[in-house]
């Protein structure tokens, strides 16, 4: 995979729906409506696959982090992935949720040559009612983004019209979500901006369904996301491990249900 100073591969985020809830972590009371935008075929495994970093992983990480730093004008003193997570949290500071999402969209756009995005949207996205483009980005995502999310595989999803496409990507345990420990960081720097980026700049609709219990995530390329008011994932409470939620809970010790202050 050749790299100049731009990357021509698809870079997603971290999210998924409640596909597998056997492995649960401590949660604050959840009030999700359990909405599903599409049905998914997945093969359950008893043990998770270990991802072995490749030669180009540090190149991808450093380039992505550089684009984040250029956007917000701040960098962490920590090296590697820990520093990237610090920068992701920093995106949320001093910005509204919508402003953080817009910043993340600009970061994703900066990773690609503008002409490549325009040509893909104009020439590839319309083929076969979007099926070809959705299948292509699913495969590129599964191959190129494991350094960010961990092990993932292409799977078959069922669209609302009943047809099936092999345009899903299932992330076994999202490293970005696991390390950030924050629903707000997941939603506002990954799920929403990635959905916006693919739809607006590549012509491929996408629904991301993070599972905040087991940290898995389902990408559904070719499926339109629901309106924000109908997206149950946006109503999820914060993880107990989230430092923002911990501080909020200490202040409001009498409340049992706590929505992530940044979600």
UniProtKB/TrEMBL annotation:
Sequence ranges assigned to domain Beta-carotene isomerase D27-like C-terminal in this UniProt record: 147-230
InterPro entries: D27-like, D27-like_C
Organism domain of life: Eukaryota
Pfam family, one: D27-like_C
Protein name: Beta-carotene isomerase D27-like C-terminal domain-containing protein
């Amino acid at each position: 995979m050749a790299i100049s100073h731009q990357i021509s591969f698809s870079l997603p985020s971290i999210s998924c729906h409640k596909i597998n809830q056997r492995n649960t972590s401590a949660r604050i009371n959840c009030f999700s409506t359990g909405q599903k935008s599409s049905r998914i075929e997945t093969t359950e495994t008893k043990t998770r696959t270990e991802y072995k970093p490749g030669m180009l992983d540090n190149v991808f990480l450093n380039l992505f982090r550089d684009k984040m730093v250029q956007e917000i004008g701040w960098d962490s003193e920590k090296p590697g992935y820990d520093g990237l997570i610090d920068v992701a949290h920093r995106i949320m500071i001093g910005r509204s949720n919508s402003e953080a999402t817009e910043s993340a969209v600009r970061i994703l756009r900066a990773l690609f040559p503008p002409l490549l995005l325009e040509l893909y949207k104009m020439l590839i996205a319309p083929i076969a009612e979007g099926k070809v483009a959705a299948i292509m980005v699913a495969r590129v995502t599964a191959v190129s983004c494991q350094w960010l999310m961990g092990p993932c595989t292409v799977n078959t999803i069922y669209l609302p019209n009943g047809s099936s496409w092999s345009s899903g990507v299932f992330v076994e345990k999202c490293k970005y979500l696991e390390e950030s420990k924050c629903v707000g960081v997941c939603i506002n720097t990954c799920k929403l901006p990635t959905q916006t980026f693919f739809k607006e700049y590549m012509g491929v609709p996408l629904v991301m369904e993070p599972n905040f219990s087991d940290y898995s995530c389902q990408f559904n390329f070719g499926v339109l996301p629901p309106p924000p008011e109908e997206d149950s994932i946006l109503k999820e409470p914060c993880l107990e491990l989230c430092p923002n939620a911990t501080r909020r809970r200490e202040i409001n010790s009498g409340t049992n249900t706590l929505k992530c202050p940044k979600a």
